[in-house]
Amino acid sequence: MSFALSAGVTGLQAHQKMLDVAGNNLANINTTAFKASRITFSQLLSETIKKASQPTAGVGGTNPQQMGSGVGVSGISPLMSQGNIVNTGNPLDLAIEGEGYFALSDGEQNLYSRAGAFAVDADSNLIDPSTGYRVQRIGNVGESDGFQVAGVSDIHVPYDVTMAASATTNVTVQGNLSADESFSTPQTQLLTSSVTYTVDSAAADDSALVSGLDQFSGTFTSGTLTLEGYKHDGTDLTENLTLDIDGGTTLGDIVDWLNTGINEQQTVDITGATSGHFHLTYGGQTTGDIAFDATAAEVQSALAALSSIGTGNVTCTGGDLPGSAVVVEFTGDLGGSDLDLMTIDSSALDDPGSIAETVAGATSALGNSGADTLATASLTGGRILITDAEDNYSLMDMKLTYDDTTSELTMPAYFELSTVGGEEVKNINITVYDSLGGKHVLSGAFVRTDADNTWDMILTSISGDVHGINLDDRRIRGIQFDSRNGSYSGLDPAIGDASEFAVTFGHDIANPQTIALSMGTSGQFDGLTQLAGSSTAVARGQDGYAGGRLSSVSVNNEGILIGAFSNGIKKDIAALQIALFQNTAGLESVGNGYFIPSANSGEAVATQAMTAGAGTVHGGALEKSNADVATEFVNMINAQNGFQANARTIRIAEDILRELTNLIS
Q1: Is the pLDDT assigned to residue 533 strictly greater than 90?
Q2: What pLDDT, on a 0 to 100 scale, did the predictor assign at position 249?
Q3: How far apart are the C-alpha atoms of 637 and 490, rounded to whole Å?
Q4: How far apart are CA 550 and CA 163, in angstroms?
């Protein structure tokens, strides 16, 4: 009878624990990521009353006789199956679908959890707000942008950090450049000053003194203007053609000087006039001494030394006149103008100053006023305009600079291309950024060149504080296309241009900003093409951006936190650390939904979501408890039935014992 009592007691104890497990599962039916447990029973050690015997020649074998002593709990283990995932709308609520655990640190050790109801604390760390434990990261995501600190595994969400601006380094263009369309009349290249000159904020006219311009400051000493650039055919203009200006110089004087310089209207100067000789200067070169009584042949020989005047187009005659006067007559063509007679009176031979006045009066007759017109300079609305003398494809470009130690005159950083010369031109625009995040509208134009299947790309203008554009870095020449299929073929190696522009902005004049142009893969159709039909080329994108602050955070399936910044840029902030275990059922629960490794779980293997067998992370969602109400109710019924049955066993054993006691009485 003792066996029945003790077995009944163990049955009561075991089913009490079964009820406890079911009760705990039901209590956590709504606990985030809770893993239900199950209980398993096994019988206790049996008492052997009689051992088994083996068969003999005459008698068969007998089985052992054993009396069981009851039931025991063989194990209580968690069910690590996936719970349902529900959306919450909170971007920092995270759930793992599949294998893995979030890793968190309490400052001393890592703990692991499937519950991902995270938040950001006052120090911008990603934490579990119920405990303050910090969520851990893996890899170096976010370190290059300064969002994370190398060697620190806590996740910093940079609400307190300003994203630095990034200068545009690449512009991508795509689309078609027409192989057959053309303007009805070829366009003429027109350069427009990027500066509007004003007097008291009103547009200046030709009569405006340079010293009175709003764009002038300081006091004149020896201000010098310098013109450089290229002609229609791309050959150099006279380099460093200069104009010394003073307090009486007007904008009209500058325009006249530009017309002279652009069209190479240089002056033959008579210099060094002293008793008995003079010099001739042209194109920056000077003859040796020429005697006042020189013969025509001697003057001709002196002129031949000037490379700018060939002996074949200028002739000289001369001789003595009554009173020992010298007559030198230049005839022929210096760019289309016959040169007049110059006479030096013998009475002035002993007076160098008088001679200088005489020869100065004749200087204008020696000017190259009939040179071929290359372009025309004018002033309209306070802006200097330079119009090409020829239409169609043009390489004409110019630059003006001003130099003076005591005054400043704002000059055009470059001339904008108001009209690009050519038979077919496709304009594009895109916003780019400088190194401080300043916005600039970059305007460019593709222009079909005189060479077959070849285009240029020129920077027509760029808004904002532009200090300058180097003329050689403004145009990308020789963009070629395959004549067979219209695919992009790269740049003409004979020209040797790079596919980039260089612009110097006012805030950083020591470091020009280089902007590369991505036009596609040679031989492919992933960028520019040249096919029949309309020109559709556009700027598709660029890689620069302004500074910004973090606006919101989301998490993708790979467990990467993605920050959306106020400047419209999205950046990877950090990668969540996901831990894997060889035996998840062997993890030891330490409360609050946390687990730590046990001797039978294996050590944590750190990885990233969707790699090495780790599951997928869902942002804005949480994993529900995997406890099932129906299953737990059935378990409770079974526990109740088992408890009642064992209680009945004890009761009956008690009744029998009582009957035995009654036998005595």
Answers
A1: yes
A2: 84
A3: 80
A4: 8
CA distances from 276 to 292, 316, 317, 355 (A): 5, 19, 18, 10
* 37-67 pLDDT per residue, tens: 999 999 988 888 889 989 999 899 999 988 8
Cβ proximity of 474 and 459 under 8 Å: yes
- Cα separation, 267 vs 160, whole angstroms: 67
Q: Token digits for 149?
A: 């600190």
For domain 165-182+424-546, give the CATH number. 2.60.98.20
What average pLDDT does the segment 96-123 reach? 96
Residues 6+ apart with CB under 8 A from 100: 578, 579, 580, 607, 609, 614, 615
Going from the C-alpha of 601 to that of each of 79, 582, 605, the distances in angstroms are 14, 6, 11
Using DSSP's 3-state secondary structure scheme, residue 14 falls into helix
Angle made by CA atoms 344, 351, 245, in degrees to the nearest 5: 80
Which among 448, 463, 431 is positioned nearest to 568, based on CA atoms? 431
Q: Which amino acid is at 194?
A: S
For residues 538 and 171, is the Cβ–Cβ distance under 8 A?
Answer: no
- pLDDT tens figures, 177-232: 999 999 989 999 999 999 999 999 999 999 999 989 999 998 877 778 888 889 89
Q: Tens digit of pLDDT for each residue in 350-359?
A: 444 444 444 4
Which long-range contacts does 60-69 make (Cβ < 8 Å, 24+ apart)?
A: 67/3, 68/3, 68/7, 68/43, 68/44, 69/3, 69/6, 69/7, 69/10, 69/44, 69/45
Q: Which helix (H) or strand (E) holds 612?
A: none
CATH 2.60.98.20 domain extents, the chain: 165-182+424-546
Task: Give the residue among 602, 559, 618, 578 at the shortest CA–CA distance from 103.
Answer: 578
Residue 368: exposure state from Cβ atoms within 10 A (0-12, 13-18, ≥19)? buried
- Here the tokens at position 231 are 């002609």
Give the chain's radius of gyration (CA, Å): 48
- Three-state SS for 205-268 is CCCCEHHHCCCEEECCCCEEEEEEEECCCCCECCCCEEEEECCCCEHHHHHHHHHHHHCCCCEC
The answer to whether the CB of 300 falls within 8 A of the CB of 315 is yes
Alpha carbon 304 to its chain centroid, in Å, reads 59
CA distances from 194 to 50, 376, 393, 414 (A): 115, 17, 22, 6
Who contacts 521 (Cβ-Cβ below 8 Å, separation ≥6)? 488, 527
3-class state of residue 363 by DSSP:
helix
Q: What are phi and psi of 321, to 5 degrees?
A: -105, 165
**How many whole angstroms separate alpha carbon 486 and alpha carbon 122?**
59
pTM: 0.69
DSSP 87-130: E-S-TTEEEEESS-EEEEE-SSSEEEES-EE-EE-TTSBEE-TT
